[in-house]
Design a protein that fits this description.
The chain is mostly beta strands and about 230 residues long. The protein has two domains: about 30-115, Sandwich (Immunoglobulin-like); about 125-225, Superoxide dismutase, copper/zinc binding domain (Immunoglobulin-like, Sandwich), CATH 2.60.40. The chain has one helix at about 1-20; strands spanning about 30-35, 40, 45-50, 50-55, 60, 65-70, 75, 80-85, 90-100, 105-115, 125-135, 140-150, 150-155, 160-165, 170-175, 185-190, 195-200, 210-215, 220-225. The strands form four sheets. Strands 11, 12, 13, 14, 15, 16, 17, 18 and 19 form a nine-stranded antiparallel sheet that branches. A four-stranded mixed sheet has the order 2-10-9-6, with no helix packed on it. β18 (about 210-215) and β19 (about 220-225) form a beta hairpin. It is elongated. The protein starts with a helix and ends with a strand.
Length: about 230
């Protein structure tokens, strides 16, 4: 009986420590995001832009997106986001969505049209990075970078990474809402608690998510996060 009481008390203390501040506001700003921007296009070429709409909890949702160009004579774009490079110069491409309250959210990318041959019009050369921070009483720190390699997204956690191994089920996610694991992409259970290591995810674009999220899965409580910066 004493053993059972001690075990229950230990779980209670772990649960209360894991909770920390139990008031969670999980809403974020709705947004449109162009997921495959390019810096330049070759004259007379075409490029299919893509965009997603993220709702007020950071989950991709269906929403009509309209496309426009700041200079149709240089770079035109149709209703599907297909852009045509018509003459040398530069122009900005805009993706726009109208919210329920009639406000507008927009993303844009600036493109230079050149006569030179463009050999790279994707995100494979892009790298993003950030810093992991704890939002709880548990140790969690370090830095990371992410990069695109073919159809895989590579997450490199740096050597300065440290995390507490005391949590009963610490999981890592990719998300656009750092306040909740709901709707996030689960990468897997954390098994490395010190030093450099790596994760690989398929069919994920480098611009698709803006946060790493560390979550105490059994208790559904956030432990820490890391904003993915451009």
């Amino acid at each position: 009986m004493k053993y059972i009481t001690f075990a229950c008390l230990s779980l209670f203390l772990l649960f209360t420590n894991c909770i920390g501040d139990d008031i969670i506001f999980d809403e974020v700003d709705e947004q449109v995001r162009i997921t495959n921007p390019v810096d330049s296009l070759q004259l007379d070429s075409q490029y299919q832009f893509q965009a997603i709409f993220l709702n007020n909890v950071g989950i991709e949702a269906m929403k009509e997106i309209t496309w426009s160009s700041s200079n149709e004579a240089v770079l035109s774009v149709d209703a599907s986001g297909l852009a045509s490079a018509r003459q040398t110069g530069q122009a900005s491409i805009f993706a726009k969505a109208i919210l329920e309250d009639a406000s507008i959210v927009t993303d844009s990318t600036q493109v230079v049209i050149t006569e030179e041959i463009i050999t790279n019009t994707d995100n494979e050369s892009q790298e993003r990075s950030g810093t992991i921070r704890t939002t709880s009483s548990y140790l969690l720190e370090g830095s990371f970078s992410i990069r695109q390699q073919d159809d895989r997204l590579i997450i490199d956690i740096a050597d300065d990474y440290r995390a507490s191994s005391a949590l009963p089920g610490l999981y890592l996610y990719l998300t656009n809402n750092p306040n909740t694991s709901s709707g996030a992409l689960e990468i897997g259970m954390v098994s490395t608690f010190e030093g450099a290591h790596q994760y690989e995810i398929t069919a994920v674009d480098i611009l698709q998510y803006n946060y790493l999220l560390y979550y105490c899965k059994p208790f559904n409580v956030k432990v820490g996060d890391g904003e993915i910066e451009n």
